[in-house]
């Protein structure tokens, strides 16, 4: 059986970790990027190996394209190819737009948009040569609808959606499928610690009356990486409990 090679950025916690666990259970060959948080990744690596797969862990700051290239190079050296790249790493902060610093705006764009672009650019040459591959970008529903005091984040995620659509059209003729997941409010470190929205009032405004769980986004990513998504090109799937309909 041929095992899929899956590269995931920001795999150390939250949605990235839940995604890594899903693919580890499949016995995939994993390349797992982290910046600082990696405590859970040895367990994921063991899970992948126990299921016949494997894992390498790679430290990289995705805002630096040379580090992203090194991450993809490490996956290529280990496995000879990357079948699926999940551009998941991201940051968020809240501030009134008039008070936003240029440095934080640039950092948000460098991580969320630059990191995604760097991943796509690093992986495409080998995917184009093989005429095969999947790229899944993690955007946000806030990139679709906007949200007060999150302008830098919304702009970066809206750009990830536009990037997804443009690259999808460009590389679909080479059988490379590029799609996007745009989660609603998911119970991760980001929602709990980087926003003020993790409260009962926000919860009550969600039609489903609860926050999402990381694995509910991982499920959408797994779908986009799998055989059932063979006709999906440039699409935005938004598991959001009904917050953006
Ligand atoms: P999280 O728990 O805060 O995880 C963010 C991940 O991104 C961490 O693993 C973090 O690694 C990594 N990361 C941040 N900056 C990085 C950098 N410069 N280089 C490499 N990795 C970096 O939040 P999450 O909710 O799982 O977020 C995952 C993705 O989902 C993000 O793109 C986020 O924008 C998106 N999203 C989340 C929600 C939500 O409600 N939670 C909604 C919509 C979209 P370190 O800890 O090692 O820095």
From TrEMBL:
Superkingdom per UniProt: Bacteria
Matches recorded under CDD domains: SDR_c
Protein name: SDR family oxidoreductase
Family label: Belongs to the short-chain dehydrogenases/reductases (SDR) family.
InterPro entries from the UniProt entry: NAD(P)-bd_dom_sf, Sc_DH/Rdtase_CS, SDR, SDR_fam
Transmembrane spans: none
Organism the protein comes from: Paraburkholderia solitsugae
Pfam families per UniProt: adh_short_C2
Upper taxonomic lineage: Bacteria, Pseudomonadati, Pseudomonadota, Betaproteobacteria, Burkholderiales
